[in-house]
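Objective 1.3, modelling of assemblies. Example input:
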Amino acid sequence: MTDIAAIGHNLSETLKKYPADYIEAHLEESQASHITYRGRELESVDQTTAIGGNVRALVKGGWGFVSFNNLDDLSNRVELAVKQARLVGREQSSFAQVAPIVDVLPVETHRNPTTIPLTEKKKQLDEYLDIIWHTPQIQTSTINYGDNQKKSVYLNSSGSYIEQARTDTALHLVVVATKGGEVQQSGFSLGSRGDFSLIQGLHQQVAETAQRAVALLSAPQVKGGEYTVVLDPILAGVFVHEAFGHLSESDFIYENERLRQIMTLGKEFGSTELNIIDTATIPELRGSYKYDDEGVPASKTYLIREGKLVGRLHSRETAAKMNEKPTGNARAINYRHPPIVRMTNTYIEPRSASFTDIIGDIEEGVYAKNWYGGTTSMEMFTFSAGEAYMIRHGKLAEMVRPVVLTGNVFTTLKNIDAIGNDLEMNQGGGCGKGAQSPLPVSNGSPHIRIRHCLVGGR
Amino acid sequence: MLAQVRRVAEKADAFVVSSEETSVQFETNRLKHIQSKQSSSVALRVVCQGRIGYAATTNLEDSPHLIDMAVAAARFGIPAKFELPVISTYPRITIFDSKVESVSIEEMIKLGEELICRLREHTPDLLCDAYISKDVHCVQILNSRGEQISYKQTIANLSVWANLIRSTDMLFVGDGESSCHPILNSDTVAKEVLQQLDLAKHRTQAPSGLLPVVFTPDGVASAFIPSLIAAFNGKMVLEGASPIGSKLGQKVFDEKLQLRDDPTIAYRPTSRPCDDEGTTSQRTPLIEQGVVTNFLYDLQTAALAHTQSTGNGHRGRSGLPAPSPSALVIAPGKVSLNEMVSDIKEGLVVEQLMGAEQGNILGGDFSGNVLLGYKIENGKIVGRVKDTMVSGNTYQLLKKVTAIGRDPKWVGGSLNLPPLCFSKVSVASK
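Predicted structure (tokens):
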């Protein structure tokens, strides 16, 4: 087997010699396994391995990037990256200085899901499959389980050398029910930092998911329009990620003068109750790490404090260009891509309201739970619920078909008028940006209430 | 490697891809990145004691480990029902142009600069991100029947995404094109983006209710295509999850509607002589005069469904083959977009629908925010709308299409779509 650490050490000696303002290299080795069920059958079991790397060079503000699977002749790769960067560079490089770090983090061997026998994983999933198929009117289902372990080496021309490893486990389950020509589906996603026990013991949740898919067949669809909407912690987490998280990624704004004016620190986005945080420093969450892919230590960043914009997420380049401190948010999904500014674990801080307080005075509204997905264009965003109920006279009423909600970042956050006391983090998400998807992140929130939220429907 | 595999497996095939891609990227009007990506991968499918196993690696030298992993997976695999194809003669489908290889980085930079310059002459405040790339890749498929095919493909891309910000109002416009030929000028993309800028110049209040809506090719792609891709997937049909799975030969859609899968169009990035299992490429009609005529299959799914593969076995770079369209083509109609608009007293044109793929796609429901769309008043486009949701159901709407446009467009490289007009679509706005 190729030893990426040895290759990294050799390369590390040479990076200083090239005519560039900054050079970094990533080397990566990974193994993954997947188990997929479709319908009543196990459809596939597969195992994959990958090894590869990249070199990125900065010259006069221009970037060259070379990625490869073949680790021979790395000096040629470095030369090509430098040559490309020179072709692009036309100004002065801005790149935040970070003290060189040499650190070799231990591989977490005590709970590597890739070493759990396939039979054991399969046994757990078989139990879920059995529950699904004991539910009447189920047409089909898919269960996707995957785990991977990745070892990576980061080195740069200022002398940093970092070895890190991470494991990741994910479960995605969808149940489909049909009646006549109607098709309805329900599902959930879970993830963990390689802890297989979080994938276990979900029998109750699986049963409820299957029953919900069936119940949706006879549920009405909500009428489109503006509603007071209450989001559960999972969907509110997706909301905070889409509605505000992406706008705080500085690579969208650092060279966009008008956006910079809109996003000046101190600008009011919400009520004084609203605090939004991004941090990669909480152990065991899927978005966590010790160093980002530019060798910067992870940090905790308040994005919004008491309703006002107080911080944003940076790479070393965006931090330097905006005269702010690097936050350690440059991440790449794998060695095929350069790091870009990404969220890690993003959440709304809990306040004091109970769920009963939150729905108590709503005459007619929508309670939206769970998630299908979300997306943003910066100003406008959408996010979709996996489950929805009407709220009538302060109480939960009939189930309706899942809804898609939309909002505008400059008004919707201000329309949050209640924040609950029940923070939960959702570990099932993967974030997409540019061609890089899905990146492990988590997001969370307590229950929140939003006034005047636009809901799509018949 | 296949010789080694034959000792432990009854059947096997290997799918080997290697590629070299170079791209030039502009951010906020300025050249920012040049990237080169070399990649290689080999995927191995084996059948051991009648069961399918699968493994993949990027390390072409490590075949013993790859074989071990695939054989280990086969212990849990499903029974193989398919026969590997005997590779006969493939249709001659031209997808390689050596001129793409020889396009220089300087020429790619110039193309991007030219495009951004043209857009900013029209709208000086526009901030453009542009992406220009060229890609050469080789695909090789070998199987244990001793068959082998390899082909080489070139792909060139040009795309631009631009924003215009006035106070807290943001406008996003953009377009792209791709081809197996080099892209030598930015005329097509520039024309499209300039038209979007002109139409979006004025803001106007969107109406609410059930209204006539024209979906441009991009709008059709975001609203209807995700549902159709799921519904025509042979696997969904086999599982009974496709709403049209039991309706082969029945008229489910408007009789004006014709949809086909077509991997044979010359110089398209989605074309290829065979699919990723070595099955010969064919044109597959999916909807003819509103009637469901075929579904898309790979080898295993086709065998389970007692039918033939349609040459739609798709592998990505890892994972077992699964049915997937190559290029979906909706046949154009006779009406121009302007004629569609001129017939509408009050309605919308939907260009980009954000988030529409996030709902119950299988059931055909979609609901999205109009990221780019225009209001129609008395037969004319009067300005851009915002804070508007458009919702509907693919099957209900495609049952009665008011008009199909005569000018189709490639969307995202793999969809060739005309505009579609409907008389009643649910619109909710603030």
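Chain B touches chain A through 81 residues (CB under 8 Å).
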